[in-house]
Specification:
The protein has 426 residues and is α/β, with parallel strands linked by helices. The protein contains 14 helices and 12 strands. Among the domains are: 134 residues, Leucine Dehydrogenase, chain A, domain 1 (Rossmann fold), CATH 3.40.50.10860; 154 residues, Rossmann fold (3-Layer(aba) Sandwich). Helix content is 44%, strand content 16%. The protein binds nicotinamide-adenine-dinucleotide (NAD). Nicotinamide-adenine-dinucleotide binds next to helix 7 and strand 7.
Length: 426
């Protein structure tokens, strides 16, 4: 039966991203024959808070931004998930991202549920002072539902270590003691974990290396095109080129650059870091950003926004491996088309799980006030990523199902089992 028929009324708005997350869940539930009572509980977030965040702008006017925090599941431990600053943020998008975090934490066997937060704003148009006031006031507004054992935010699109430092400080001032374990992805000097900033991109690359080995292409003969040059995209480019993969095209929200001989990633990072536009990079030629997705390459890495690969362009992809660094870059309609191709898909809930994995390491270290070195962090990250990759791969082969279905089956099943064991309160 087509899972589309069972889509619930859009409680979380008619957001296409939320519909996409629920549709995925329904499809997986059918595949694993999930108990309907458990499905009923998993298909709706546990808790959502919408807040008005008024701040004084630099010009003296007051603006009220809308912020969200959604906790999908608190069954397995505190909820965990990033905080996104982007103009498109709405309740449905945040709810979808929170649900995906639940499956991701379960696939990685981390003692967390899924959460996500965000503020509808354009961080590129805010001054540092405005961003700080926005972050501090937002922290105050969501204070009742966050905590080291309740919900632990982290960076995501448009937020970074500095954002986490402001949250940590605001929360610590409110509780009266330094509380680094309230957020992950903080600066190292505030209790952050070495290697956290690079963790998502590194995890993406660990998965890509496994996929390359399976399809029999050596990194030195591989090329990659990467959409997005922020935290995930830039580190992915850097780690791929360290392993000999040629980066032939990169894009960001303002444009794209390509070089069939290979882009010098360190030089591109320096160029962008100095405030210049990526598309103006002298070591490449400006191209249409839409061409990145359909360009001939070994590895395509969407590392920006959701819903980039749709039924419109899925048939035109010319990559051998699709490594989903971003959350939700492929729509279910596109997925159906891709599943008929021989593209090796590394689904988002597995591919970009390195970030939350090292966030888990950071939380554990903060709780114990006992810190690891970067070699330990990277080695533990690689061990957990490879274990999850091979579990998903084995299930996909055993049942002859797509990688996404295998990954989501493992994640949903684990959360479902925990819910069943705990029972329904009261
Ligand atoms: P970021 O803000 O650091 O970077 C985002 C990049 O995407 C920027 O280069 C931006 O210019 C680019 N971008 C925005 N709109 C674009 C468009 N329309 N076309 C091309 N590029 C565009 O964000 P990030 O942390 O790298 O997150 C990127 C994705 O990875 C998001 O989907 C996020 O949810 C996901 N993710 C991030 C982490 C993490 O640890 N940061 C972990 C897991 C998943």
């Amino acid at each position: 039966m087509d899972a589309n028929h069972k889509l619930p009324r859009p409680v979380y708005g008619d957001s296409p991203v939320y519909q996409m997350a629920v549709l995925q869940l329904l499809t997986v539930a059918e595949h694993i024959n999930l108990d309907q009572n458990i499905l009923e509980r998993l298909s709706k977030p546990k808790r959502a808070l919408i807040v008005g965040v008024p701040i004084r702008m630099d010009d003296g006017k007051t603006n009220t931004f809308i912020g969200y925090r959604v906790q999908h599941s608190l069954t397995s431990g505190p909820s965990k998930g990033g905080l996104r600053y982007h103009p498109s943020v709405d309740l449905g998008e945040v709810a979808a991202l929170a649900m995906w975090m639940s499956w991701k934490c379960a696939i990685m066997n981390l003692p967390f549920g899924g959460a996500k937060g965000g503020i509808a704003c354009d961080p590129d148009k805010l001054s540092m002072g405005e961003k700080e006031r926005l972050t501090r006031r937002f922290t105050e507004e969501i204070f009742p539902i966050i905590g080291p054992r309740m919900d632990v935010p982290a960076p995501d699109l448009g937020t970074d270590e500095q954002t986490m430092a402001w949250i940590m400080d605001t929360y610590s001032m409110a509780v009266g003691y330094a509380c680094p374990e309230i957020v992950t992805g903080k600066p190292v000097e505030l209790g952050g974990c070495v290697g956290r900033r690079e963790a998502t991109g590194r995890g993406v690359v660990y998965c890509i290396m496994q996929a390359l080995a399976e399809i029999g292409i050596s990194p030195a003969n591989a090329t990659a095109a990467v959409q997005g040059f922020g935290n995930v995209g830039a580190i992915t480019c850097h780690e791929l080129s360290l392993r000999g993969v040629k980066i032939i095209a990169v894009s960001d929200r303002y444009g794209a650059t390509a070089n069939p001989q290979g882009i010098d990633v360190a030089a591109l990072s320096k160029h962008v870091g100095s405030g210049k536009l990526l598309k103006d990079f002298a070591g490449g030629r400006e191209i249409d950003p839409d061409d990145i997705l359909t360009m001939e390459c070994t590895v395509l890495v969407p590392a920006a926004l959701e819903r980039q690969i749709t039924e419109k362009n899925a048939g035109q992809l010319k990559c051998r491996i699709l490594a989903e660094g971003a959350n939700g870059p492929t729509t279910p309609d596109a997925d159906k088309l891709l599943n008929q191709s021989d593209i090796f898909i590394i689904p988002d809930v597995l591919c970009n799980a390195g970030g939350v994995t090292v966030s888990y390491f950071e939380w554990v270290q903060d709780m114990q006030q006992f810190f690891w070195d970067e070699a330990q962090v990277n080695q533990k990250l690689e061990t957990l990523m490879l274990k999850a990759f091979h579990q998903v791969r084995s299930l996909a082969k055993e049942r002859t199902i797509p990688m996404r279905m295998a990954a989501l089956s493992l994640g949903v099943q684990k959360v479902a089992q925990e819910k069943k064991r705990r029972g329904l309160y009261p």
